[in-house]
Design goal:
Distance between the termini: 17 Å
Number of strands: 12
Order of helices and strands: EEHEEEHEHHHHHHHEHEEHEHEEHHHH
Structural class: alpha/beta
Shape: flat
Radius of gyration: 28 Å
Strand order of the largest sheet: 3-4-5-2-1-6
């Protein structure tokens, strides 16, 4: 784990040219350094009051100081706002480094907020997801977790288990004073937590889709309009469209926003037997993309209709398959979702079919992969505890299972997470956050 007793500095905004750029300082020397790079800053500065002045590197801007305990990190800190020239930002950072600040590592500001108890690990992860959100619903999910929704849920479950653990250990250590364990009551309490764990685990699938996007493979025979369909959904000419069969030799992957739901559209080479070795590679890659997709749109030509080849191909995919009858302006295939990439008819229905894959429970925050693994560990431990209570095994075995469940839940929020786990999480952040 990184040291938290020095003062760090980094740009908190991108390095691309912009109207305003922010340099962030955090640590015990933040105000001193801020005062040395902006000499007109009062000593001491007024916390949470913006001060305008000239900086030593020649730019002018604003210093916003925060006292210990009131900043994002929980430390004394300052945000220095200047014009968003990459050179101005770089010069200001160099001036801060020359006066004793250390360049921050990725995620180090958020890590300090965690270490100072300002946020838990779930909220820290949501900070990164807030920064990376590309759709409205991704942002809503990140904001819900960042506000503490998951922390509160997991914390309540952990407290319930801790109370039962105390009861079990009290009976184990002081059986003569407290009497026998009420196994029925303990088992009922544990089972109520089991139900909550299971409900959270059910959100893992939609959580993965919300964070990484629903992968939709657009497959089918050549010349059915797969690339035209991709372009129509994106609203731009991303894929090459040609009447010549086999134009698409490789897959094209693009992200899309379907009403706030993140979707990854994958246009693939037409499925057919070919003697062209390059096209054959494209066909094999198409099959591979379909195998790893969450949803397959099998596109057919409405003017041609459903063929025996389509019948044989559509059952080869492991992912759910939605038949898409393109070129509906030229005919009626009689099956699937009728669309036309040219007239755009049917596209709303096609988008809705993808949105339907995001089955959400608005009451619960969707968990990520790390949470899911730890919740699964907790569920296994709780099942062991319940089985022990239903048998004639000693009470202390229940204690062992409950301790494991409590540890797993605590690792979600960070209370029992190891330094290696914490460091790994924050190193996935961008610099300055």
């Amino acid at each position: 784990m990184r040291p938290i007793f020095d003062t760090i500095v980094a740009h908190a905004t991108g390095m691309a040219p912009a109207a305003v750029g922010i340099v962030r300082l955090s640590g015990p020397d933040s105000w001193r350094i801020a005062g040395e790079v902006c000499p007109s800053l009062p000593d001491p500065p007024i916390p949470r009051h913006a001060h305008y002045g000239m900086f030593v590197h020649g730019d002018d801007g604003i210093v916003l100081p925060y006292e210990h305990g009131k900043s994002f990190t929980g430390e004394q800190s300052a945000e220095l706002s200047v014009h968003g020239s990459p050179r101005s930002i770089r010069s200001l950072i160099e001036a801060c480094e020359a006066r004793g600040a250390r360049l921050a590592e990725p995620g180090e500001f958020t890590e300090r907020a965690f270490l100072h108890g300002r946020i838990d690990l779930t909220q820290a992860e949501a900070v990164r997801e807030t920064v990376e959100a590309q759709t409205e619903r991704q942002l809503a999910l990140a904001n819900a977790v960042r506000s503490g929704a998951l922390r509160d849920k997991v914390g309540l479950m952990r407290e319930k288990l801790l109370s039962q653990l105390v009861a079990v250990e009290a009976v184990t250590d002081f059986s003569e004073e407290v009497g026998p364990l009420d196994r029925s009551a303990v088992r009922s309490s544990i089972q109520s937590v089991q139900e909550e764990v299971d409900r959270l685990l059910e959100t893992a699938s939609v959580g993965r889709l919300m964070r990484h996007g629903l992968r939709v493979a657009i497959v089918g025979p050549p010349n059915v309009g797969k690339s035209s369909l991709l372009n129509a959904l994106l609203g731009s000419d991303r894929a090459i469209v040609s009447p010549v069969p086999g134009t698409t030799r490789d897959y094209v992957e693009e992200r899309a926003d379907f009403g706030g739901f993140p979707v990854v559209l994958i246009d693939t080479a037409g499925l057919r037997r070919t003697e062209d070795p390059i096209e054959e590679i494209g066909v094999q890659r198409s099959i591979s993309q379909a195998a790893h997709a969450d949803l397959v749109w099998y596109v057919i030509d409405s003017s041609v209709g459903w063929t025996q080849s389509d019948e044989e191909s559509v059952y080869t995919f492991s992912a759910p398959v939605e038949v898409v009858a393109n070129k509906s302006d030229l005919g009626n295939a009689g099956r699937g979702i009728a669309v036309s990439a040219i007239t755009r008819s049917g596209l709303p229905e096609l988008v809705a079919s993808a949105q339907a894959r995001f089955e959400t429970n608005e009451e619960l925050p969707a968990v990520n992969l790390r949470h899911r693994e730890l919740l699964a560990e907790s569920a296994t431990a709780l099942e062991s505890a319940v089985s022990t209570l239903a048998s004639d095994h000693p009470d202390d075995l229940v204690s062992v299972s409950l301790q494991e469940a409590v540890r797993s839940l605590g690792e979600i929020t960070g209370e029992t997470a190891t330094p290696d786990v914490v460091s790994r999480i924050f190193r996935e952040f961008c610099i300055g956050k």
